Amino acid sequence: MGEQWPAIAARLRQLRLLAPRSIHDRLLALDDPMSVLNGAVELNITGGMLTQERLDVLLSHANGHAPAQPAPSHQPPVQTVETLPPTDLGRTVAPMNEPEPVDVLLRNNLPDWNVADFSMHASDASSDITVHFDITGNSITEGKMSDITACFTDRLEKIRKLIIQNSRLPRKHQEIARLVAESSRYQGYENKAVAIGLVNEPRYTKNGHLMWGLEDETGEMTCLLTKRSGDDRDRAQEAIIEAGLMPDDVLGVSGTFSQTGDIFYVDDLHFPLESKHTKVAADQGVSVAFLSDIHVGSKTFLEAQWHKMVRWFHTDPLAKTIKYLILSGDCVDGVGIYPDQEKELAIPDLFAQYTEFARLLELLPDWVECLMLPGNHDAVRPAEPQPTFEKDIQHDYNTTTFVGNPCDFSLHGVRLLSYHGKSIDDFVAGLRTVTYADPVEAMREMLRRRHLAPQWGGKTPLSPEPEDGLVIREVPDIFVTGHVHGHECVDFRGTTLVCSSTWQDQTSYQRMLGFQPKPCMLTVINLKSHRSVSIPFA
Fold this sequence. Notes:
Layout: H1 5-15, E1 17-18, H2 21-29, H3 33-37, E2 48-49, H4 52-62, E3 129-133, H5 145-166, H6 176-181, E4 193-204, E5 210-215, E6 220-225, H7 235-243, E7 250-257, E8 264-270, E9 287-291, H8 303-315, E10 322-328, H9 350-362, E11 369-373, H10 391-394, E12 400-402, E13 407-411, E14 414-418, H11 424-430, H12 440-449, E15 478-481, E16 488-492, E17 495-499, H13 508-513, E18 521-526, E19 532-536
Parallel strand pairs: 1-2, 6-8, 9-10, 10-11, 11-12, 14-15, 15-17
Antiparallel strand pairs: 3-13, 4-5, 4-7, 5-6, 7-8, 9-18, 13-14, 16-17, 18-19
């Protein structure tokens, strides 16, 4: 009888009814389920959840009895997602439990926003998504040493060009082997040398100076940035010494050699980010919203707050301007991600978690288009850049565009870079000025370096693609990450930085660390005015 379900599901979609598993089974057991459903319009049973009581009313009507008063639906009008028979694709589909009615008011007053800054309804605009880079289908590495060498060579070449283009180098850079061989020529203040290379083993001396190796294709030299005092203090260099350097950074240095030629004294460092970026304004005033780390399947997933957001999407004027919703990874909690995770799972089956998240997305209004990329909890390879989800996961989703992590794309000409943000862990460990309490500082450092995850062998597994997929090729108008369960929206040198909020409450691990997440904040940015507003749902 399961072959009847596609037709039944199509009719339910027309009626905007959501059918849980118990209703699914009852409908399939009927001799003529379509005739029963056809009475829904006459009885005004449309929209929301098809409960047992409402189905009883439909059955009485179909049998010719006087219809009882249908039980009211507490759910907002929603679209439905087709529930597939358990035999589909040979996997188990999560049962859809009837949610209890939730009526949670916004705790805080909604922030002010100007109608002129959010000037267009999303339903009046056509979709305009252009993907510039996505590793999906383009991963060719075999993990050999030659691939690793090619990856670092590509990184060095690309970022070297950016340093030459965007930094004010005092003179033309030279190959490191040539500089070392001719070090006696560059031992006076008037004879500065310039080199560009990869950072090796950054460390501090006993006196607080910063020392590291700098390597290019020809050789390596030891660099020293001294901590100065008095009139010789340089604030920019002090900031670098205070923060430190990341292993495998690509940067330029200018300075002179010691008398023995074994130390290169750095006068200045040169990074590849230009001083100011000018945003592109879209020709249409639709908006984009950002979420990350929903962690469906976890016992700490904040489902009541999700339904509150859904109601907001259906009723608020600002929500009607949102054309796109960017989901920056970890939409489900996954399975086997960390020890004893099964104790904290409400849905222990991985595919069932994705099915449930698809159902939650279907509650959003039809003018919202989703763009979804994976994170470290998702069912893709852990090594970055990550390809997108397999087809059997995408199967349950309708108006969703699936991309890899990271993804460089444009919406109506506005350039966006979405990255889940796993390498924030490495920036926190490697730079003394980056903390989990201020993850946006890690995003600033990524832009300064024009690279999302420079450190090889750190906390972030990397895939050595012959073309380094984590180089920031173009400075984005909007740069978004997630992963650390914080929230912030700030401007940095003309780029809007968005640390997307989570939809998960504090976990036991976070409680042990004393870390308090900032959940349930929806960041909305208009693509024409670039005005932003954050809506609290916690």
